[in-house]
User: What shape does this take?
Amino acid sequence: MTASMTLTAQRGPGAPRLTPDVVPGVHRLEHAFTNCYLLVDGTSWTLVDAAFPRTWGALIRGAHELGLRMRDLQGIVLTHGHFDHVGFAERAVEELGVPVFVHAGDRQLAAHPYRYRREHTPLVYPLLYPRSLPPVVGMVRAGALSVKGVTAVSELPGSGMLDLPGRPEVVFTPGHTFGHCGLLLRDRETLLSGDAIVTLDPYKGIRGAQIVAGAATADSAQALASLDAIAATGARVLLPGHGDPWLDGAEAAVASARAIGRS
Assistant: This one.
């Protein structure tokens, strides 16, 4: 893996960073402890997740550094409809006319990204887990409180390969949200797991392969059950919505998440 590059004059935790080729043809854009992924096929590309409103400028600069043109962006695939993944999607629709894809189970959530079901109030988590403060502060600075919902969306199927650069295959993994999906890059043995498995839970500030805390998860029991679908991919690499890439394989990630359990 090549070293990451800071995209702005901002420094410190949460600053936008681009890591080219985390696996061949897949580039990671991290902003405020949240990941987007650029799937490149020649000059065309797909974006997976849209982070925050202020990630837009970092995406434009990152695409330029990679030699990509914004007009060659073929689609944005949302793993789910939470505010920290919907981010600038509406702006991309307005300025580029790019199609946005989300599962039917999250269509309403993508339109109203703050109206999500959760098991616990998030307000107590900074008190219980002080290490969550840097992610929370970073997200607010990135525009987490001003995300516009996106309504002009196309629905993802529950399975199958998408006709988009990177040729991602949909893996339905409900629980974090009811329409959550991962994306399998079969030829690269890589799963973009969204928030079905993360390696940093921003609500606890704790690292390691795990499901996200009940502060943002709709149904933890269902999220744990969806780990079977992740294990079944046989992926060698997991690229999560939050945290660093997991390089020890899907089965080990699933074992870790089950050992940690719900919180």
Notes: The chain has a mean pLDDT of 95. The first strand starts at residue 5 and ends at 6. The first helix runs from residue 55 to 65. The radius of gyration is 16 Å.
